[in-house]
């Protein structure tokens, strides 16, 4: 499959000698939703800024749509769209005016931009507010306008830098729907940075985890979860039952058993495959099972496992909208 | 290129008209200079007929009175004051992430710069024509001193005045835009501009006749672009005597200054709008 984003040993050192991004190599395939995951300050925004021609890599190289970002920045800019972490709309101008200006800077003619703007306003549910100044928009409306501005030139590749930061759950779900639709209908490749693990899990085909500038893992969400952290089979026995710890431990594939009253937690590689054997082990001792649940490790656990740090300790779960400005930004 | 340029001009225009304080400031400023400052600061009153009046008249190089001399010089004050804010827009765009948005578009960097330069220098220029209009009107208001034109003003002369104002606006707007691109904080911007503001004005002949200055200051004033522009205005409005050059020479000097400062500013802007 065609690779639309390729980086090799990409790195950025700021003037103060700090390497915000070190030796990042990744590939993103066409029409893929690719997640770039990490806590605040991990290097997400810096990487995005290099891929979108806003920052110059200190070392390594990056190609977007087959074009070198340093040597052919103009050609890259014609093919990408960016939704920045913070609103970049002019607050004194209306939503429609902001879109018209964005279209003009992308060299779209009036004839091209007018239907496009109408469509985007409708799609982003901003038609009614189109002629109001952005100053009066709610946070969610500003975010939707930002998405409309970012997709004004119908990009091949869309960069989303923490697009759902500070959105309520309903707006987040709506946003996810829109991203999936863009990919399905227009074949857009999406590069999404986020520090929400559930977002990466729900939305992305593949993802990378970056921590302190280093890429520490890549793969599909399922692969990552499988590679790190065991499944857990939770077995709850019915009625008065004898201690089955030894019986469960003797089942081939079970690595550890922990008992909590009538409930046993069994650690194993692939939970679904062992459920039958576990049930049989109980049955052979004539014990009835009340409940069996297979729990997959979440990306939170993957992150904990890989970095030795709890994810939420650094990430901000509620997501305040503050942070460094896009472009020259250090956050992310 | 053209479409992107016009887009930036339109953005500047929309931002300008949406802030009524700005718009009114443009109209109030020339009025304040002429009514509050110019009426009181009238050297003619210090030299009653006889003592020194003749010398003053000579120093004014043919202008009928000091207020008229001053009003012609106001083109320098007003353009300097109004273009001083050109860079603040760039600073805000930088801080609000709008500059990143614009840099991320395929628009040519020169169009982004040129759009701001052209609109803002036009806006910087307008109030000085208002000032001249006010000055002319004051001549008919009892109790106010006004601008007396004692030269024969031709259409070419008016064109020369407009050109001088345009070149002065362009070069100062370019200069202050460049500072806006180059510095990162409001503090350093206003530090730099307030450092430049008064020296630029006081080393020119906008307020004081050059012949009354010490020799070293005279040589600076002769090359100060404000002096060059003011010379063009005075030579056209008054029956002048004693100017070493005609308006054409001063316009040439202004054009060289403008080319130099716009060139430097374009380089600064291009560097700033490129990936760093």
Structure report:
The complex is a heterodimer of chains A (332) and B (276). In chain A, the strands form 3 sheets. In chain A, strands 6-7-8-3-9-10 form a 6-stranded mixed sheet, with helices on both faces. Chain A has a 4-stranded antiparallel sheet with strand order 2-1-4-5. Chain A has a 4-stranded antiparallel sheet with strand order 12-13-11-14. Among the domains of chain A are: 3-79 and 155-225 and 310-314, P-loop containing nucleotide triphosphate hydrolases (Rossmann fold, 3-Layer(aba) Sandwich); 230-296, Alpha-Beta Plaits, CATH 3.30.70. With 332 residues, chain A is α/β, with parallel strands linked by helices. Chain A is built from 12 helices and 14 strands. Chain B has 276 residues and is mainly α. Chain B has one domain. Chain B is 75% helix and 0% strand. Chain B is built from 13 helices and no strands. Chain B has helices spanning 2-17, 20-40, 43-46, 53-59, 66-83, 86-95, 98-103, 109-138, 155-182, 186-202, 215-223, 225-237, 247-273. The radius of gyration of chain B is 20 Å and the shape is elongated. At the A-B interface, helix 2 and helix 3 of A face helix 1 and helix 7 of B.
Task: Please render the helix and strand layout as text.
The complex is a heterodimer of chains A (332) and B (276).
Chain A (H helix, E strand, L loop, with lengths): L2 E11 L5 E11 L3 E5 L6 H8 L7 E6 L2 E2 L4 H5 L2 E4 L11 H11 L4 H14 L15 H12 L6 E5 L7 H18 L2 E6 L2 H7 L2 E6 L2 E6 L1 H7 L3 E7 L7 H5 L4 E7 L2 E6 L2 H13 L5 E7 L3 H9 L3 H4 L18
Parallel strand pairs in A: 3-8, 3-9, 6-7, 7-8
Antiparallel strand pairs in A: 1-2, 1-4, 4-5, 9-10, 11-13, 11-14, 12-13
Helix pairs in contact in A: 3-4, 3-5
Chain B lengths: L1 H16 L2 H21 L2 H4 L6 H7 L6 H18 L2 H10 L2 H6 L5 H30 L16 H28 L3 H17 L12 H9 L1 H13 L9 H27 L3
Helix pairs in contact in B: 1-8, 2-5, 2-8, 5-8, 5-9, 5-12, 6-9, 8-9, 8-13, 9-12, 9-13, 12-13
């Amino acid at each position: 499959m065609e690779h639309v984003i390729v980086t090799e040993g990409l790195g950025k050192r700021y003037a103060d000698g700090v390497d915000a991004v070190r030796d990042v190599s990744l590939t993103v395939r066409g029409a893929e939703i690719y997640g770039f995951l990490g806590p605040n300050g991990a290097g997400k925004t810096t990487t995005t800024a290099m891929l979108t021609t806003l920052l110059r890599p200190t070392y390594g190289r990056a190609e977007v749509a087959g074009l070198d970002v340093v040597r052919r920045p103009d050609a890259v800019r014609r093919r990408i769209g960016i939704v920045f972490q913070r609103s970049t709309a002019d607050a004194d101008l209306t939503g429609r005016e902001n879109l018209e200006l964005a279209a003009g800077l992308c060299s779209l003619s009036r004839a091209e931009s007018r239907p496009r703007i109408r469509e985007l306003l409708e799609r982003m549910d901003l038609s009614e507010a189109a002629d109001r100044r952005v100053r009066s928009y709610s946070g969610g409306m500003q975010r939707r306008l930002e998405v409309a501005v970012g997709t004004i030139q119908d990009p091949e590749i869309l960069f989303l830098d923490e697009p759902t930061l500070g959105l309520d759950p309903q707006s987040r779900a709506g946003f996810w729907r829109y991203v999936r639709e863009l990919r399905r209908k227009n074949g857009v490749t999406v590069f999404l940075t986020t520090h929400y693990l559930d977002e990466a899990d729900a939305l992305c085909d593949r993802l990378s985890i970056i921590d302190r500038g280093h890429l520490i893992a890549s793969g599909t969400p399922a692969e990552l979860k499988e590679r790190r952290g065991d499944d857990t089979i939770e077995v709850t026995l019915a009625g008065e039952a004898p201690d089955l710890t030894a019986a469960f431990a003797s089942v081939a594939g079970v690595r550890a058993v922990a008992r909590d009253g009538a409930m046993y937690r069994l650690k194993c590689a692939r939970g679904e495959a062992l459920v039958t054997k576990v049930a049989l082990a109980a049955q052979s001792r004539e014990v009835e099972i009340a409940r069996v649940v297979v729990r997959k490790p979440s990306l939170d656990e993957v992150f904990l496992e890989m970095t030795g740090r709890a994810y939420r300790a650094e990430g901000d779960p509620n997501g305040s909208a503050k942070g460094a400005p896009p472009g020259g930004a250090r956050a992310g | 290129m053209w479409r992107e340029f016009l887009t930036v001009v339109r953005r500047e225009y929309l931002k300008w008209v949406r802030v009524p304080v700005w718009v009114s400031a443009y109209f109030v400023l020339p009025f304040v200079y002429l009514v509050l400052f110019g009426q009181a600061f009238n050297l003619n009153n210090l030299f009653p007929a006889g003592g020194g009046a003749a010398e003053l008249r000579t120093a004014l190089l043919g202008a009928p009175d000091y207020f008229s001399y001053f009003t012609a010089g106001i083109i320098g004050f007003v353009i300097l004051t109004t273009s001083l804010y050109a860079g603040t827009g760039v600073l805000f765009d930088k801080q609000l992430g709008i500059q990143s948005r614009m840099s991320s578009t395929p628009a040519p960097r020169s169009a982004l710069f040129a759009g701001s330069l052209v609109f803002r220098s036009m806006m910087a220029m307008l109030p000085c024509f208002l000032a001249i209009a006010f000055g002319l009107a004051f001549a008919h208001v009892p109790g106010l001193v006004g601008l007396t034109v004692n030269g024969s003003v031709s259409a070419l002369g008016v064109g020369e005045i407009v050109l001088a104002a345009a070149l002065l606006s362009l070069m100062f707007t370019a200069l202050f835009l460049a500072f806006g691109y180059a510095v990162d904080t409001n503090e350093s911007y206003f530090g730099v501009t307030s450092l430049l503001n008064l020296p630029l004005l006081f080393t020119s002949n906008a307020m004081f006749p050059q012949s009354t200055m010490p020799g070293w200051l005279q040589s600076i004033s002769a090359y100060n672009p404000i002096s060059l522009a003011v010379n063009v205005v005075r030579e056209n409005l008054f029956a002048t005597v004693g100017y070493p050059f005609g308006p054409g020479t001063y316009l040439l000097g202004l054009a060289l200054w403008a080319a130099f400062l716009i060139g430097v500013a374009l380089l600064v802007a291009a560097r700033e709008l490129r990936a760093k």
